[in-house]
Amino acid sequence: MATTMDLRPWVQTNGSKIILYVWDGLGGIPYGPGGKTELGTAKTPNADRLLGQASCGLLEPVYPGITPGSGPGHLALFGYDPVEYQIGRGALEAVGVGFDFREGDVAARLNFCTLDAAGIITDRRAGRIPTDESKLVVAKLQQAVKEVDGVEVFWTPVKEHRALMVLRGKGLSDLLEDTDPQKEGVAPLAVKPRDKSEGAVSSAKIAQKVLAQAMKAIAGEKKANGILARGFAKRPHWPTMEERFGVRAAVVAGTPMYRGVAKLVGMEALPATNEIARDVESLAAAWDKYDFFFIHYKHTDKAGEDGDFEAKVHYIEEADSGLPALEKLRPDVLIVTADHSTPVAMKGHSWHPVPALLAARTARPDGVQKFCEFNCKTGSLGLRPSMYLMPLALAHAGRLAKFGA
Q: FRET pair for 176, CA 20 to 30 Å: which of 48, 125, 205, 331?
């Protein structure tokens, strides 16, 4: 496995600026015309031009053959070993939406889903119902299920078909299995404890009662008549990016989950919309306040999960259109990469390494003409763990001192 190094003794400040631009789920596999990937098919003139001053390569988010969730994929890009810093998605959503997430609370990310008359899942995302419609479903839950067996229950809308459930009470455990089977044509799973400890067993029973009452409350909904729970988690206490790497960091992400993972490592959240032009403007407005900027683009991942090749190509091109405005800020390091691959052919996350380019005055250009998976594998960054990207960014920004005499 990859090894980590404590960089703090060599971190130095110099006023340099780093931008990490993440095209979520960017990587693909051959599927389109001519056997190309989505990225290989898309027209990316700005990323291609950046290659003239960039090193490129492929990144493995967690470990060879391991398919990462979005949380681990982003933590690795931030320089945190995703195996050491593990977290359930519930905590990421809770922090991302600004919920009053207290010590001992257990949060779970929810997907509203569609069930048939027999209780079988026919759509894991309830047709991606709009957020306004989802809020109405959450309002029903807020009225119907407030307390179970002495445990307070909180419900919060997130975005589209996503919502948040938080349990608050004494002795709760987050060692609980997901109820999402990750496929359609089967029933939701029951909440099960991950071990036989008293806290896990009793918490699983409470969570199952909560979800059973919740499902009863929304059974009459046409689309969002079921609930799938994922990532039961308590809030972790992690060192910040400023503590580890000496950078004041900010996040521009329109989706709460990505704000959440960034905030857990000390990033401050800037206004965001998921519209790249407006999000770049938000970043630019805070340019003098921070050293490191993480800007997130979601639509590429969504199109991959939907299995829509043309849409993913379109959104890659839209993401590419945001680069000139970022370049105008004259960052010392500009990185374009992804948290994981979401091939259209697979309609979900995959283990495939993701393409990356690192543009900087100190970079060694690789002579690559087109930003895509197959060209990046020939680049000088090679194939390496995603968590090594942060030290490289710091080095190219002049933020790491010489090691040894």
A: 125
Contacts of 353 (CB under 8 A, 6+ apart): 27, 58, 59, 60, 341, 373, 377, 383
Q: Give the model's pLDDT for residue 405.
A: 78
Residue 38 three-state SS? helix
* Paired tokens of 377: 């594998």
Closest CA to 88 of 215, 261, 280: 261
Please write the tens of the pLDDT for every residue from 313-323.
Answer: 999 999 999 99
Q: Over the stretch 142-167, which tens digit does the pLDDT of each residue have?
A: 999 999 999 999 999 998 999 999 99
Q: What beta strand segments (E) does 253-370 contain?
A: 268-269, 292-297, 333-337, 354-360
From residue 394, alpha-carbon distances to 363, 380, 386 in Å are: 12, 17, 14
Helix, strand, or coil (residue 232): strand
CB-neighbour burial class of residue 208 (10 A; exposed 0-12, middle 13-18, buried 19+):
middle
Question: In this predicted structure, what is the pLDDT of residue 5?
Answer: 87
Distance CA 123, CA 341 (A): 22
Domains of the chain: 8-87+237-396 (3.40.720.10), 92-233 (no CATH)
Confidence check: pLDDT of 1 > 70: no
Name the pTM for this structure.
0.86
98 contact partners, CB below 8 Å, separation of at least 6 = none
Query: Which residue(s) pair with 176 in the sheet?
Result: 193
